[in-house]
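Lab notebook, bench 4. Still working through the backlog of constructs that have no structural model yet. Next entry is a single chain of 77 residues. Request: give me the structure tokens for it.
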Amino acid sequence: MYFFVSPDREDLQQRIRLGLEMAIADGSFVRFMRNHKVSANLFPLSKWSNHKKIIIENHLMPADTPYQNTKYWLPVH
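Model written out:
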């Protein structure tokens, strides 16, 4: 999920980033995802472990997208 904010609103960008980082750190982000009507059906993530996964490269993603930082991605094994 991405949030789009005007380039002129760096204060808002930082506030959103800080809020999301805090939610990730204290676990409330995952709790939110588990309970939100849009994403709740994805949980538990273990139910996807036997499904075939198809990796699709997205060449439109920004080059600085932190793919390697596991705290930003839900593990689906």
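Notes after review: Residues 10-72 form one domain. The mean pLDDT is 89. Flag for follow-up if needed.
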